[in-house]
Specification:
The protein contains nine helices and ten strands. The longest helix is centred in the C-terminal third of the chain and has 22 residues. The model has no long low-confidence stretch (mean pLDDT 96). The strands form two sheets. The chain has an eight-stranded mixed beta sheet, with helices on both faces. Strands 7-8 form a two-stranded antiparallel ribbon. By secondary structure, the chain is of the alpha/beta class. It is globular. Its cofactor is Zn(2+). GO terms for molecular function: hydrolase activity, acting on ester bonds; metallocarboxypeptidase activity; zinc ion binding.
């Protein structure tokens, strides 16, 4: 096997400084539009839901308003459930799956749960099809005090009053082929470490919280999603993306300790979805539908359990 080529920015073994980050940022270009793809769909939801701006990202010359959508029949006696998408902006079905849930399925939960949905946490990354923000910071490792990512800080400020009230949080993500061709090599170069090639799983999987696992909750989601798209099998080592598979299509991470979005509240039930959009066995429509199925199954499980 040939050795991977060095990443074109920086010096191998040396962490990036300001010059390397600026060089990387200069190479990022807008490939799609938040104000065209996302904001009109959010605006259309105003007829049915409360839409609130919870922050704004000022990345000159671009400005990105951040929106949260919640159902109007908010009732403190009902369980509160949280859906986040686009924490990694390049993960398309995370954004469009969250919007599709609101457009097609969320109405069924009126009077049964308080829904709060943040469909696009990282619009700069959405437009440039990248997982980082302009400072080469990964928002999904930044949900902690004194966050270096404005995207994460805005979410945490919004959720602070609700942190103890949220009973379920599902964070919508994708694992793509570009994780191995671009994003993990860039991460290794940024941090001045050797890049170790990995293996992209073919199919949908979930990331549970290793510090407070809820295996039955995860399996309820898997059972619903496998009606829409295929579930990622474990590899020859019994792993999915380098972590042991603890059940069919499920791995575990310490969500809060890693600063992951799914650990941002005290929710008892939490998970991260991972759709594989590059599979020859999945279409973009299936990927969005898989995210919707996962959200509905998660809420249904919680409503039955509480």
């Amino acid at each position: 096997m040939s050795e991977p080529l060095p990443y074109p920015i920086g010096t191998p073994g040396v962490r990036w400084g300001a010059a390397e980050i600026a060089q990387w940022r200069a190479g990022q270009s807008r490939q799609r539009r938040y104000d065209v793809d996302v904001l009109p769909r959010i605006d259309a939801l105003c007829a049915q839901y409360d839409v609130m701006q919870y922050g704004q990202l000022d990345y000159a010359p671009d400005v990105y308003p951040l929106f949260a959508i919640r159902n109007r029949a908010w009732d403190e006696a009902l369980p509160t459930v949280l859906v986040t998408g686009g924490v990694h902006g390049y993960e398309t079905s995370g954004v469009h799956g969250a919007l599709q849930f609101l457009e097609q399925a969320a109405g069924a939960y009126a009077g049964r749960a308080n829904l709060l949905v943040l469909p696009c946490v990282s619009p700069w990354g959405y437009e440039r099809i990248h997982r980082w923000n302009p400072q080469a910071v990964d928002p999904n490792r930044s949900f902690r005090a004194d966050s270096p990512a404005p995207e994460a800080a805005a979410v945490m400020a919004l959720l602070a009053p609700l942190r103890e009230r949220v009973v379920m949080h599902i964070d919508l993500h994708e694992t793509t082929d570009t994780d191995e061709t671009e994003f993990r090599p860039a991460l290794a170069a940024r941090d001045g470490i050797d890049y170790q090639p990995g293996e992209i799983p073919d199919g949908f999987y979930l990331v549970d919280d290793s510090d407070a696992p809820q295996p039955a909750f995860q399996q309820a989601i898997i059972a619903a999603v496998e009606q829409v798209t295929h579930i990622a099998p474990a590899d020859a080592r019994g792993e999915i993306i380098g972590s042991p598979a603890v059940a069919d299509g499920v791995i575990e991470y310490p969500l809060q300790r890693l600063g992951l979005c799914a650990g941002v509240t005290a929710a008892r039930y939490r998970t991260t979805t991972e759709v594989y959009p590059d599979s020859p066995r999945a279409t973009p429509a299936q990927c969005n539908a898989a995210q919707v199925a996962a959200v509905c199954a998660a809420i249904d499980y919680v409503l039955a359990a509480t």
